[in-house]
């Protein structure tokens, strides 16, 4: 353009008839002046103060557009990184919580195994229910050593636990996956039917019980095959020999001892079901009453939102302009579609259409890299204003209008003020473990009388099967087992004392796992600081 001053002024956005600012444009700017305006070689302002003002203006404009619901904020790189960091934080807490949950389960099972042997003897033997509680452990030490006490029935218990449906499938898959080559890793192996697995598990549980109370030698590793065959000399399921003349009278006489022999074993099966139901009932109700983190829903139901304000109608307009049946039907369809969340046919959409933030593409050949970065970092939100329907009667020409949504800021503020917690395996661990061991204690106390009757019936059935089920008092290693054990106050005190020991040990295990959970818990600020990410990135 050379020295043509009018064209230069017009290129800089000024009128060619404006007065020329005095001074040398090539002279450096004075930093001591009140407004140190700087320009680049093309005559554009490049000082940081102007850039900051432009960014503030664009940011305030965008915030207004987002508040009134016209535009939605774009997810920037900082927000994406923050979301990825939050997902990693949740995965970390779930992993730590699951590991601590497994540790708590192992500790709880070990404590129950150490205490249940004495509890079973108190419910089964009269001698253990006659001595005071402080002499109970000394009495047991006279008949069995503690290593033998802990080992008795342990192999059967481990095998029976491994036969649970989920543990069985995972154990078989892991074992076969480590033995077979990788090409056979996806093969489906047939498992035993659930009825056969339950039958084997019940026999293993009965065998472990008899080892713990001293009816079967505690040194036996696993039961033999004869133990699983009903009616054999080693089976707890007693079947009397068939009568020689098969008549109605002999079969009826034979069915009575058969029912007596099968009753304890069948009773033990239903006792396991009752234990599971009672334990689930107590655990579920206790967990509902314990304090635990809960996250309310972000979404507010439609019925809780306030109705939209009535539209302001000019005076006399509603009375002067009649409405036909088509307009009424269209309004009803629009109202019904708004409640159902679907656009009505022939009417406007149920909600205002939103536009994502877009940067106006400039084809200016004089744009520089610095200016392009400013455009991307400070994007101006724009929206289209559509023309409303022409109403020549009252307005003459088409009036331009932009309809905004009802203001829901009060409801959103009420929802935002509610405390929000991270709900995962780590934060819910204390309440879940507390409900677990409190429910176990309540279940053991409630089902103690039923367990005493069932265990006594199995012991008598196993020991008296050679005598035709003579349900008399039987001597077992110097102890007496009655067919129907009488309940005494001393037995109740000993039982409550054992349950108190169990509760104390389980409470200690709960405290240990809770302390570890608190040790590995990290707040959002600590997690961001550990990974070198702070909230300042979001502000930039």
UniProtKB/TrEMBL annotation:
<feature type="transmembrane region" description="Helical">
    <location>
        <begin position="213"/>
        <end position="231"/>
    </location>
</feature>
<keyword id="KW-1133">Transmembrane helix</keyword>
<keyword id="KW-0812">Transmembrane</keyword>
<protein>
    <submittedName>
        <fullName>Uncharacterized protein</fullName>
    </submittedName>
</protein>
<feature type="transmembrane region" description="Helical">
    <location>
        <begin position="251"/>
        <end position="274"/>
    </location>
</feature>
<feature type="transmembrane region" description="Helical">
    <location>
        <begin position="469"/>
        <end position="488"/>
    </location>
</feature>
<feature type="compositionally biased region" description="Basic and acidic residues">
    <location>
        <begin position="39"/>
        <end position="51"/>
    </location>
</feature>
<feature type="compositionally biased region" description="Low complexity">
    <location>
        <begin position="341"/>
        <end position="356"/>
    </location>
</feature>
<feature type="region of interest" description="Disordered">
    <location>
        <begin position="337"/>
        <end position="373"/>
    </location>
</feature>
<feature type="transmembrane region" description="Helical">
    <location>
        <begin position="500"/>
        <end position="521"/>
    </location>
</feature>
<feature type="region of interest" description="Disordered">
    <location>
        <begin position="293"/>
        <end position="321"/>
    </location>
</feature>
<keyword id="KW-0472">Membrane</keyword>
<feature type="region of interest" description="Disordered">
    <location>
        <begin position="1"/>
        <end position="51"/>
    </location>
</feature>
